[in-house]
Amino acid sequence: MIPKIAPSWQAELKTEFEKPYFEQLSEFVKSEYDAHPCFPPENEIYNAFNHCAFEAIKVVIIGQDPYHGLGQANGLCFSVHDGMKHPPSLINIFKEIEADLKVPYPKSGNLERWANQGVLLLNATLTVKAHQAGSHQNRGWERFTDTVIKTISDKKEQVVFLLWGGFAKKKTKLIDTTKHPVLSSGHPSPLSANRGYWFGNGHFGKTNAFLNDFGLSPINW
Fold it and tell me: What is the pTM (predicted TM-score) of this model?
């Protein structure tokens, strides 16, 4: 079953969609959405791909799980729908951008504006049951998103990968670091940030410096 995903991604991932594990994953996700409130909304599960075409990728940010609160998740890691209160990790992301780039803190936590500039905002697990963090882990999503990361690494050049926290850093093994810059730091969650592992990493300015070096337009964070 090929999901409703942008044509550029269908071309890259068609063989993955045809594998038995993805069929089983699709059946599991459908049964969960039929039986329980789940997030993001079904039509936004593949938003990360539908807002950032394969050929447009400049930057990849890897998250773990969608937000599991009502109305938060919109299919992009760390992002929430317009009008939603900013979760703590997103607050710390915006504070770091504010300090790093001297730009004002934004009103909206919807990061579609980043995705539309070539930032793939990829959660390792694309769905979750309401109020149950991690409830859709180890069902096949991680195999799929690992393939996405490796496909980007293998087929593209000079993509900046931002790996925040221990979980994301484990994805380094999927990335050819001889042709892609990788920036790692602690996670923006309060637990990590308050211990000094997040603030001051300068990732947003460093990313734009890499993009300038590659002859690409910087991201308007």
Answer: 0.96
Phi, psi of 195 (to 5 degrees): -95, 0
* Interatomic CA distance for residues 193 and 185, integer angstroms: 10
The yes-or-no answer on residue 65 being catalytic is: yes
pLDDT per residue as tens digits for the range 97-115 = 999 999 999 999 999 999 9
Average pLDDT over residues 195-202: 95
User: Yes or no: is domain 7-214 CATH 3.40.470.10?
Assistant: yes
User: What's the whole-number average pLDDT of the chain?
Assistant: 97
Helix (H) or strand (E) run with residue 25 in it: helix 20-35
Q: Quick one: three-class SS letters along 144-193?
A: HHHHHHHHHHHHCCCCEEEEEHHHHHHHHHHCCCCCCCEEEECCCCHHHH
Spot the catalytic one: 34, 65, 100, 146: 65
